[in-house]
Amino acid sequence: MDAKTDDRPLIRCAVYTRQSVVRPGDDPALASCAVQRTLCTQFIRSMAWRGWYPIGERFDDEGFSGASVERPALERLVARIQDGDIQRVIVYRLDRLSRRLTDWALLLRLFERLNVGLTVVHGAIDAEAGSLARLQLNLLATFAELERDMIGERLADARAARRARGERAAGRVPLGYAADARTKQLVIVESEAATVRWFFTEAANGCSTTDLVKNANALRLAAKSGKRGEWSTRAVLRLLRNPVYAGRRPDGAAAVHTALVPNELFERVQATIAARRTRTPAKRTKASERDDPFLLRGLLVCERCGKTMTTSMSTSLTRATATKAPRYYRCCTADCDGGQVAAARVEAMALEALRRPQWNWTSVKKDQLRQLASTWDVLWPANRRRALAEVFEAMTWRARTRRLLVKLRAEMPQGEKQTAS
Q1: C-alpha to C-alpha distance for 159 and 170, rounded to whole angstroms
Q2: 260 in the same domain as 198
Q3: CB under 8 Å to 23, separation ≥6 — which residues?
Q4: pLDDT band at 344 (very low <50, low <70, confident <90, very high)
């Protein structure tokens, strides 16, 4: 081997891959991230004459959208770059790295500041190869964002068209139905339909909700999850109030699927439930704002429907139950499957965002967040919620990936202005 080859500097290359959807049953060897990594690794080896070699650590974001830079593998990659462990980043296509122009510009500035090269294998484009290469990458980033926006618009139009035709667009499949594999519309499952009809018949005959729960559990009736004998009052009322069983959409509009119970029976049950609600409700001990344990009350939003998530407890909120009873944030939109999240989990994520700012936030905002974090322990719960609302413009729960997305306000108050207890 000649001296020039021996003296050639080695360049540590990291391969970054991303795929938006991970489908159950996909062969890992044929998954998109695996294919991207194979192609990028082959390209790196073809550039061995320039001293390039792939590092062993993988940076794969499976099931994450390119519309945000809040991805665990990307954040880990940036941390390794900041530590000086990587000299070049390799991606198969630019839209694997980002589908937003603003994020692309941010990442490019980061790579330039830390003197890290970027190569797009599809087209063999090096970001530092000159103005023409930069123009190509900027155009690719523009088209990637355009494609993402067009896909979103087409999906929204398709959902609106389905709703106009009375077809199912999304959401949970209720007990008694299954989603057709081809059309995704609701079809009756007779083995489950008998349970639903039993509930409606018993309720129409005057059986109270409490007795319905007791009888259903005694009969070991199965829920949609397959669990038997675990019915609750909330679950029974949710079933009896669901207009889908009367052949309607969740919003009450006419639907194309077959009704599971006659409309007359459904309306009679609704009248029975409404009549019971006219009774004087039991008194609830209301907790003061100071005792309210829900840190994100009125702040947390469901990503799927954009509505504020409601708070939920297994018992009434009092000073005694505030710190003991399980707490949840739930999406209660009728046709949304945003589900619920344990309050302790999502609140811990919010505090983590406050105490550990993201790498792409400005140093000024990071300092302001640190100031607020330093006074956090002496704030009343109400002032903590107010402080979070002043700092974060949006706090969104992403049910699919079980992550909290936060967005800072453009103008943030200084930490010392927060009110302490």
Answers
A1: 8
A2: yes
A3: none
A4: confident
Rounded to 5 degrees, φ, ψ at 340 are: -140, 165
Percentage of the chain exceeding pLDDT 70: 86
Helix (H, G, I), strand (E, B) or coil at 209: helix
> Over the stretch 41-63, which tens digit does the pLDDT of each residue have?
999 999 999 899 999 899 999 88
Residue 284 lies in a domain: no
Q: CA distances (Å), 240 to each of 35, 177, 236, 366, in order? A: 48, 15, 6, 50
Single out the residue of 352, 339, 314 nearest to residue 402, CA to CA. Answer: 339
Task: Give the separation between CA 293 and CA 288, rounded to whole angstroms.
Answer: 10
Distance CA 127, CA 98 (A): 14
Q: Are 136 and 7 contained in the same domain? A: yes
Residues 267 and 295 in one domain: no
Distance CA 326, CA 314 (A): 7
Containing structural domain, residue 223: 177-277
Is 111 in the same domain as 231? Answer: no
Q: Is the same domain home to 219 and 273?
A: yes
Residues 185 and 222 in one domain: yes
Q: How many CB atoms lie within 10 A of CB 199?
A: 24
Measured in degrees and rounded to the nearest 5, phi and psi for residue 291 equal: -90, -5
Run of H or E residues at 348: helix 343-355
> Could you give the residue ranges of the DSSP H alpha helices within 56-188?
72-82, 94-97, 101-113, 131-164
Highest mean pLDDT: which range of 99-103, 308-312, 355-359: 308-312
Residues 254 and 215 both lie in one domain: yes
Q: How far is CA 157 from CA 151, 152, 258, 399, in A?
A: 10, 9, 25, 23
pLDDT tens sequence across 258-288: 888 899 999 998 888 888 765 555 555 555 6
Give the alpha-carbon dihedral of 407, 411, 417, 420, to 10 degrees: -20
On whether residue 408 sits in a domain, the answer given is yes
Residue 367 belongs to a domain: yes
Chain-centroid distance of CA 308 in Å reads 14
Per-position DSSP letters for 287-330, written without gaps between them: PPGGG---TTTTTEEETTT-PBPEEEESS---TTTTTTS-EEEE
Q: Residues 11, 50: contact at Cβ < 8 Å?
A: yes
